[in-house]
Amino acid sequence: MKEQLLVDQYGRQLNYLRLSVTDRCNFRCYYCMPEEGINFASRTELLSFDELYTLSSLFCNLGVDKIRITGGEPFIRVGIDDFLYRLSAIPALKEITVTTNGTLTYKQQQVLKDTGVRKINISLDSLNAERFRQITRRDSFKKVYEGIFNLLADGFEIKLNCVVAEGKNIEDIIPFIELTKAHALAVRFLEEMPFNGSLVAGNSGWDHQQIYNYIASAYAHINRLPAAPSSTSVNYQVEGYRGSFGIIPSFSRTFCGACNRIRLSATGDLRTCLYGPPAANLRDATRSGTSMDGLMEMILDAVAKRKRDGFEAEEAGRMSIHTSMSVLGG
């Protein structure tokens, strides 16, 4: 099989795969899904770990050198340990990272160390236990918060992802910044995206400029930090603080022009843009006997047709904003 790179029609190389291993989650965050949950995929509909490994290897043969494991909540899937060990042995893969809600990392901490995972993103939308409960509809703040500092003490690089919304957690923004004063962690504030799996969806959050202005009004000296061209966040550091903070314009989508990501959902949907429709289903193709060369051509064809940005992808696909982020894989 001839090796090729994932380069779209605008010359952008995609070397970063966001790989969802499950659509299930033990939280019910209001911006992700309704309180009663969603119609989760059956076990047979999920890609098996063998299929996930085969497809991950194929992506790496096509130039992917970073894989982020996502969900749902990835650590609730039985067998994730062995999968991480197998994934870490792929020669071309330089980095594995994980996005989690932090409730189960204590069970996986040694596995993460053994497999070379050093960077973990933890979704945390409040530093107040009651607001946390209201946002997640779960009473797990203490477990998550203590787990963050256990990971920091064990040498992991931690980013906290906070979705900002009026009436939900605005009063947490400054406490999050203050958390970076003594701790070498990064906080990322995200604009809310309208993917919540409910009948009513919309953006009730602040935009990136409003978030920055709010922070800047509280601090006299904020330094902008350098970032890679493909970075989704604009990053800053309060002068004298150990950690940093960033703002991700996930709804405004100002970073789309340099995006280097491709996504594979737990049920095999391949997306070249979060806001666009699936370009193909690799689970169905794999199970129907499509060869590795055939799968490669499907992926290359999807990338070749990639839209310029999230707005163009959304317009072309007319994807329902009611789709749950748990299904999309983040």
UniProtKB/TrEMBL annotation:
GO terms (BP aspect): Mo-molybdopterin cofactor biosynthetic process
Domain of life: Bacteria
Keyword 4Fe-4S: yes
Keyword field: 4Fe-4S, GTP-binding, Iron, Iron-sulfur, Lyase, Metal-binding, Molybdenum cofactor biosynthesis, Nucleotide-binding, S-adenosyl-L-methionine
Enzyme nomenclature, EC number: 4.1.99.22
InterPro entries linked to this entry: Aldolase_TIM, Elp3/MiaA/NifB-like_rSAM, MoaA, MoaA-like, MoaA_NifB_PqqE_Fe-S-bd_CS, MoaA_twitch, MoCo_biosynth_MoaA/MoaC, rSAM
Cofactor: [4Fe-4S] cluster
Top EC class for this record: lyase
Domain Radical SAM core stretches: 9-225
Reactions catalysed: GTP + AH2 + S-adenosyl-L-methionine = (8S)-3',8-cyclo-7,8-dihydroguanosine 5'-triphosphate + 5'-deoxyadenosine + L-methionine + A + H(+)
Protein name: GTP 3',8-cyclase
